[in-house]
Design goal:
CATH class: Alpha Beta
Distance between the termini: 29 Å
Structural class: alpha+beta
CATH architecture: Roll
Shape: globular
Number of helices: 4
CATH superfamily: Hotdog Thioesterase
Radius of gyration: 18 Å
Helix content: 10-25%
Strand order of the largest sheet: 2-3-4-1-6-9-8-7-5
């Protein structure tokens, strides 16, 4: 497939950049090369139908991405996705199923991006969000107000049809959330956007708690040896921890 410049333009608009970048920035591959899914192949939650033995609620838990070189728009690009592992664990609120996905994006016969995603499936209702002891020292702080329009636009830019991000009755009445859920990858991108510009070679994050439409997400960080420590907060809760390597 040809990596379309329009994919980058849509995400640039969502992130309020003045123009689309000339190459794919770190983690922007989430908006590229989406495979179309027929409506009849979608499940109740809006995602493509899956193994019915999996628990019903799906959460994007973590990602670890290595950047070996830039992806360029207008170039033939190969995307390969495989299931690396399926593991069941006992959680405090019931059984959890962890699905590990390996994804690669290649151009000119070279892998430019390698990503390992962790997706968690559970039948348990969402736990109430509680305050955390937050990191005290940050070298930068950037606030982003969220609303349903931002979530809908990000869903469109990344071809994410999960109903928890745009269907409020479904999010509340079926999945038990107090509001529309902010995408984990959106929070991760806000962390990268807030960081001083560096040639990132690796980016890894772990989602800790959800954020909801109407809340302000605060992206913070500080430089460390060879990289940066990043985290996101809202209303006294630690939403995500991440690390970028340069």
């Amino acid at each position: 497939m040809i990596l379309a410049a329009s994919d980058l333009a849509r995400l640039a608009a969502v992130l309020d950049r003045p123009e689309a970048p000339a190459e794919v920035p770190p983690a922007w591959h989430w908006a590229c090369l989406a495979k179309p899914v027929r409506r009849s192949d979608l499940g109740l939650d809006g995602h493509p139908k899956r193994d019915p033995s999996l628990p019903p609620r799906r959460m994007f838990a973590a990602s670890d991405i290595t950047f070996a070189g830039p992806l360029l728009p207008g170039v033939e690009t190969e995307r390969v996705e495989t299931i690396a592992a399926v593991e069941e664990k006992a959680g405090t609120s019931g059984p959890l199923t962890f699905v590990t996905l390996d994804r690669t994006f290649s151009q000119a016969g070279e892998v430019r991006i390698s990503e390992r995603q962790t997706i968690v499936y559970t039948a348990a209702a969402p736990a109430p969000r509680t305050p955390d002891a937050l990191p005290a020292t940050a070298e930068w702080t950037v606030e982003t107000a969220t609303d349903p329009v931002l979530l809908a636009a990000f869903s469109a830019a990344t071809s994410n049809t999960h109903r928890i991000h745009y269907d409020l009755p479904y999010a509340k009445d079926v999945e038990g959330y107090p509001g529309l859920v902010v995408h984990g990858p959106l929070i991760a991108l806000l962390l990268l956007e807030a960081m001083p510009k560096r040639p990132v070679t690796r980016f890894a994050f772990r989602a800790l708690k959800p954020a909801f439409a109407g809340e302000t997400i605060t992206a913070k960080g500080r430089l460390t040896d060879g990289g940066a420590e990043l985290w996101a907060e809202t209303d006294g809760a630690l939403l995500m921890k991440a690390r970028a390597e340069f």
